[in-house]
Amino acid sequence: MAPKALPATAVFEFRTTGAATNGGIFDSASAGTDYSQQDAAQLALKDCACTTGGTTLTSATGGFTAAMVGNWCYLSGTHFTTGRYKIVAYTDTNTVTLCADPTDGSDASSGTCNVGGAIDLPTDAIFELAVSGNFMYVKAGTYTFTESIAVSSSVKPTAVIGYNTTRGDDPTGTDRPLFACGAYSFSANASWRVFNLRFTGTATVVCDMVSTYTSCVNCYIYNSSGTSNRAALKSCENVVDTELVSTKGYCYAGSGAFPMFFACYLHDSVRGISQETDYYLTVHSIFDTLSGYGIYKESRNRHRILNNTFYGGGTCIHGSNTGHAILNNIIDTWTLGLSNSNTNPKYGLMICGYNNFHGNTNDRSAGLAAMPGDTTGDPDFVNAGGGDFSLDTATDCDDTGFGIRLGVG
């Protein structure tokens, strides 16, 4: 019999110092002690037994305690269906009750049972266990993928959260856990949210959030592939305080609805944002050294591009359809600042003004005129070559004191 589905209150723990055969999950609604937040199992047995059709697990060696209620144990052995089972009741040191029958249809014996302890590596099978409301905590370290993680649409855990030493410490930089994906990828689905994680890899897409209501917060995603047109991130609806790089491709390749970028750093790639659907918002972000395009949005409508800094590259912003708001941006050192491929006067960059153009070969493509509030003064970045786009006190621009965390202003 398969293990029973997890409750919404289940919490996962991943640590590189854990083990694949640890319990790794705790019910936060339980009165027991959370033994998943440690490297080793709290109890390791090798003589467990269970009568088929029942949920009573016994061990002659013993060692069970009432505090273990709410922890999952990892079970395997003769006629055991290998997997994780929640301890729901304690009888005595030799006997506990599980959430489901752990047998394969025959009486089980010689069972290995590990109670608690963290799981050492995220896998697709483990992520598929989750249900809506679950939290997954990932402690700092390098998790080298051995397969792609592609979560089915019916699985909607609340969050995957990285931490350094203590849950909730909101790490930055290299203190964040690293998912070293290699040639594999991480694909979530609707309602997933990832916090405080780093992803590296070479797949077509390193991190694909796939669907609606997804978020990526305080993350670093890097696609180092030498193959063209690959992406760091795809189709995430809310991208906040996140750094994106794709050496030969796109920082973000969008096909989902209504994405929003806030305080992000997109750099050293061919394209920053390549958006295939309408209605996205980009605010207070930095686009740096993008050889092709900063933002590319052919035949798409109603994009909001507000209060960003664009520095160095091919074409800064390209579009063709209607309703775009491009306001209060710094556009510096591009071959072409604004481009519109549609000559129909009813289309184009509909609401465009109060932008600063400096150091560009051409500020605008033919047919696009300067708009009210546009300026041409030097923004006087503190150190653009070093990735610090905060403004000198004597600048001709005003950043109103806003600075993003990723080392840039």
Describe the structure in brief:
This protein has 409 residues and is an all-beta fold. The protein has one helix at residues 124-128; strands spanning 10-14, 25-27, 43-50, 56-59, 72-78, 83-92, 95-98, 108-115, 135-139, 142-144, 149-150, 159-163, 178-182, 186-187, 193-195, 198-201, 205-208, 215-217, 220-223, 231-234, 238-240, 243-246, 250-254, 260-262, 265-275, 281-283, 286-297, 304-306, 309-319, 325-327, 330-340, 351-353, 356-358, 362-364, 381-383, 388-391. It is built from 1 helix and 36 strands.
Structural commentary:
This protein has one helix at 124-128, and strands at residues 10-14, 25-27, 43-50, 56-59, 72-78, 83-92, 95-98, 108-115, 135-139, 142-144, 149-150, 159-163, 178-182, 186-187, 193-195, 198-201, 205-208, 215-217, 220-223, 231-234, 238-240, 243-246, 250-254, 260-262, 265-275, 281-283, 286-297, 304-306, 309-319, 325-327, 330-340, 351-353, 356-358, 362-364, 381-383, 388-391. The model has no long low-confidence stretch (mean pLDDT 90). It has two domains: 10-115, Elongation Factor Tu (Ef-tu), domain 3 (Beta Barrel); 133-391. It has a 16-stranded parallel sheet that branches. A hairpin with a 5-residue loop joins strand 3 (43-50) and strand 4 (56-59). It has 409 residues and is an all-beta fold.
